[in-house]
Amino acid sequence: MLLKVEDLHVSVGGKELLKGINIELDRRQVIAIMGHNASGKSTLALTLAGFPQYTVTSGRILFEGEDVTNKSIDERARAGIALAFQSPPSIRGIKLGHAISLAGGVNPWRPKKGDDTDLPIKMLAKVNLDPVSYLDRELNVGFSGGERKRSELAQIFAMKPKMMILDEPDSGVDIDSLKVLGNSLKDYFNEVDCSIMIITHHRHILQYIRPQEVLIMAGGKIALTGSYEDLMPKIESIGYEKLIREAKGSV
Q1: Is the pTM above the cut of 0.85?
Q2: Each residue of 108-136: pLDDT tens digit?
Q3: For the ABC transporter domain, which residue ranges apply (predicted)?
Q4: What is the pLDDT of residues 130-189, one digit of tens each?
């Protein structure tokens, strides 16, 4: 078991946002976290990544058997947890190529003997961004939505994480970028030992990298779980709320 979330309760500013979340993620598994707006999906992602404003009031987060509930963002990143933001930030003064090197543990200004100084070029190639055009550009400054997502994915690939948490990777991207993102994720997953948690509203990105399990959130809880093949047609046909009501009524 790579990740185990046990009865997780999380509050922000005294307001409880997650109310008893239980999740298990195996090695080399893909799961999708779905649900309507304000259901707790992004709160879950940021909590798992270790953002301090999300206070765990009870429950535990275990990663590779170790309790990381009180670990910092940096400690979790070093352990192998990587988060892709819903809206990757722009940072002036930092070149994209340098950001990729740093993500991969390479000092771009003072590389050590044996460091892979070509890492940025390799990672940009994986997300179909031309190194000549993008290496020296400021991080995400002036980038389109799709370019931002691809830039961030290149940085995450450089980290070689054990678990990727992707917060709405298909949000704000056009069809061409979605195809690149989806195929890049699929190729990466097939190449390395990595698990993926995808947070999304719809099936767009899931058509490229199919989850073994879908978890539907509502009101800060996991309201329903099932296979992609079973739940996705129902989600698209009747929506989240009716699907959850029908599931509760059948219990």
Answers
A1: yes
A2: 999 999 999 999 999 999 999 999 999 99
A3: 3-244
A4: 999 999 999 999 999 999 999 999 999 999 999 999 999 988 888 999 999 999 999 999
Q: Where in the chain is the domain with CATH 3.40.50.300?
A: 1-41+52-79+212-251
CATH architecture of 1-41+52-79+212-251: 3-Layer(aba) Sandwich (3.40)
